[in-house]
Structures are given as C-alpha cells and as structure tokens.
Amino acid sequence: MPDTPYVEAWLAGPDGHSFYTRTYHATSPKAVAVFVHGFRDHISRHADVHAAFAQRHVTIFAYDLRGYGRTALDSMNSSPDASYGKTSRSLEIRDLEWWINHVAETNKRLPLFLMGFSGGGGLALVFPTRTEPPPSPQTVALLSGVIAISPLVELGTPAPRIARQLVKTVSSVIPTFPFYPPLPPERVSRDPEVVASFAVDPLLKTRAGAQAMYEMLIQGEEMLEAGWQRWPNDLPIIMLWGTANEVNSPRAGIDLFEKLAITDKRLVTYQGALDDLGHELKDVSERFLDDCVTWINAHLTTRRRLPRTNSSARR
Question: What is the superkingdom listed in this entry's lineage (predicted)?
C-alpha cells in the first residue's frame, strides 16, 4: 500500500460549500461506504481504520462535516462562511444526501453502505427515517445497509434538565453560541496512544455550537420514542457497541435496535470496550473490522438501485 493510502480533495457540496474529503480506494473493491465521523471529530483521525477497510476490498469515502475538521478550520480552502461548530442537523442531513448521491454516481457498480460513528452514527440512524426530504426516497433507496458504530441515541450521562433547557434557549437565539461539553479521551478508548493523541490534535476542539448540540440530542431521543417506526422495512442494519461505552448509552442504542421491526438486523457487542471501536485494544479493533466486513460481504446483493438523476440532492 502507498505511504498515503487515500486521495484527498476539496469538493463543493450544497450551496457550493467547500468540504475536505478523502477516498480510500480498495483494490478489487466489492463495496463502497460513506463514512460520517463523530461529534467534534474529523476524518483524518480514522485514517488507519479506513485504510484497513480498503485492504479488505471496501472503498471508503469520508468527509469532514460542515463545521468540523478541515472543512471548518483550513484557512486556505474552507468556505468564507465556515467556522467551527457552525452547522445544524438539517444541514448535516442535506450534506449527507449530497455525498451519498455523489458516491453513488462515481461508484455505480458497487453496493453502497452508510457508516456512521458515535455522533455520526446517530446521524446515520436519523437519515433514512425523515418524514419529508431531505433525503429523498430515491437517495435512501441507494443504500444497501447501515453500519452504526456506537451511535448516539442518548448520552452515556444524560445532561441535567436545566442544562438542556439552557442549550435549547440559547440555540434559538444564537445558534453558534459555544458550549464546552466535557469529553475526556479516557472515555473514548482504552488504547493509551489514542488517548494521548487527543492532546496534540489541532482539529479536535472542546467547544460545540448550541444548535448542533441540541438538535443532535433531541433527534436521538425522537428515534427511540417514535422514529424507529419509520425505519425502511428493506434496509439492513448492523449496530456495534462496546459494553463499557460511557460517551453514548449502549442501553438506549440496544433498546432502539430491538424496537426496529425488521428481520435483517445484527447487533454486535464487545465486552469492556469503549466508544471508538476502530481504535480500541488491538483484539477488539481487529474483530470490529472483521465483523463489519463480514456483514458487508453478506449484503453485496441487497437493495441497491441506481439513481436516475442527482437533481434531488443538488437543489
């Protein structure tokens, strides 16, 4: 494999917003996955995991979400109106639809999967259950399956009611007002090198925009209360959890999984593991990769329909 196992590009998304992207091209690819990173996260942190998927014949397309990573912080390439934490759930869904259509058009022969981690896993759960576009039904129909990695349904430690009300009030007045929710790296992974990397990573910030944070929380809760009923009957899902996850609640995630009224679903748990399963102790991370790829390989002929046009995502 080359020293740089990916192709990076700055691509225009909805409204011409500039996004930092990476594509990890697999040799003899069997499938392609669109990866959505976690809250306050960025895709460069997952380079080793994405390269490992590519070695297993799964191409990965990843992008730094609006308001995060280089999409927000690269002074040379980011959009003039970009800033850290400046986003909303409606924009995130619209952006994700755009990139799913982009990947479908550029990989027409490959089954397409949606893969989300932590906060991005919560977005992956919400995405196919909206009551109106975006996304369009045609975009959802492109997916051969959803891979939800430690998805945010509820926080591991729920925010106090007064704090939630404060964030809600502030988000309606100043959507980008910064909050600083704690996220000790020791709660993300048991790998000491991963924990140490958080302190020196310039793209990992401690702040979050009020609107983005509030909408992320309430939509996860809505999925558990009612959104699960809107899950497409023919959309397979695999959900993967570390049993000791303290960032997001495994109990809430598994409750949601059990409510899904579909037959093609799989739940995988890893005893003692934390949030970032791709960066856990070596045996966990290797089993996580094997479990994901085995599931993808079992769904290579599932559901995928080619788009007739990309206009639904590019309005």
Answer: Eukaryota
Please count the CA atoms within 13 angstroms of the CA of 20 that sit on its side-chain side.
20
- Residue pair 17/65 in contact (Cβ under 8 Å)? The answer is no
For 25-76, the pLDDT digits (tens) are: 999 999 999 999 999 999 999 999 999 999 999 999 999 999 999 999 999 9
What are the residue ranges spanned by the domains of the chain? Answer: 7-297
Task: Give CA–CA dist 85/169, Å, rounded.
Answer: 17
Structure tokens, 1: 């494999």
Q: Which residue has the higher pLDDT, 208 or 291?
A: 291
Q: Which fold has domain 7-297?
A: Rossmann fold (3.40.50)
Burial of 182 (0-12, 13-18, 19+ CB in 10 A): exposed
- Residue 43: partners with Cβ closer than 8 Å, 6 or more residues away: 20, 22, 35, 37, 50, 62, 63, 64, 69
For 200-225, how does the pLDDT look when each residue is reduced to its tens digit (9 = 90+)?
999 999 888 899 889 988 999 999 99
| CA–CA separation, 212 and 122 (whole Å) | 13
